[in-house]
Amino acid sequence: MGDTLKSQAERLLAVFSELVRAYQFRDREGICCHGVSISQCYSLEAIEMDGPLTMGELATRLYLEISTMTRVVDHLVRMGLAKRVEDANDRRVCRVAVTPKGRTLMKKIRGDLVQGYQQVLTEVPTESREDVIKAVSLLLSAFKSRQSGCCEAELQESSVRGKGRAS
Question: What architecture (CATH level 2) is domain 34-123?
């Protein structure tokens, strides 16, 4: 008989945790050599793909607090990789946009990363590559649909207790 769901979840946790660690350390070395932090790189990528974005939109995308996001963007602006722009519909809203210098850097980083992924894929049998990509995409979708941390039950209990208190 096959593995139980709990056993499969434990194995997925072990494999995925190791994959994330390997990816993060590879990223730390690969991206920092371009003179930006991982957070700055992810921020530039999000702004380039979907921007200009408000600080709140960017913070939500990167799972960061707005205060942390503001510090990251401040560095990007000082380096000339991003700029703050006024919202076309509401002058009170500030958006963050990538600059031409930021686009050039992202093109270089993306090219280096794609080259690295090509090397990784050479370790995967040719006939399995599409299956691997599909499986990782399915995992991503599953994680995004959950959007919960390790202490979900505790957070729900805390939320229920908090509703009875006066604000």
Answer: Orthogonal Bundle (1.10)
